[in-house]
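[Discussion] Sanity-checking designs against the backbone

I'm trying to build intuition for which residues belong where. Below is a structure token string of 109 positions. I'd appreciate it if someone posts a full sequence so I can compare it with mine line by line.
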């Protein structure tokens, strides 16, 4: 019973991240970002790690819109959520820094 509850909660958290980093050409509303930050502030360290892993997986998406929204979500959450999330993002800072989602034609020559 307890494992099924954890699975449902994990699914709910992944749906929150999916909604905030959707492939639509719309800006993610701030209230969704705030909900995720509140979840990160009030959750256990293991849940923060799971959510940060899911955010980092969204950075590997093929769509540049999803990557941009994931980077924006990470930037917003680092400033608004707790120290555990900041620490987790520092551990994975290389993966965030090496995002090559911007198309080469946008650089000019």
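Best answer:
Here's mine. Compare freely.
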């Amino acid at each position: 019973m307890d494992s099924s509850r954890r699975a449902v909660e994990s699914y709910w958290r992944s749906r929150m991240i999916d909604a905030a980093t959707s492939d639509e050409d719309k800006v993610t509303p701030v209230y969704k970002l705030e909900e995720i930050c509140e979840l990160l502030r009030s959750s256990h360290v293991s849940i923060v790690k799971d959510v940060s892993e899911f955010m980092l997986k969204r950075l590997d998406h093929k769509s540049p819109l999803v990557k941009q929204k994931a980077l924006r979500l990470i930037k917003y959450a680092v400033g608004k959520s707790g120290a555990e999330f900041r620490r987790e993002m520092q551990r994975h800072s290389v993966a965030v820094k090496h995002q090559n989602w911007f198309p080469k034609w946008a650089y000019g020559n």
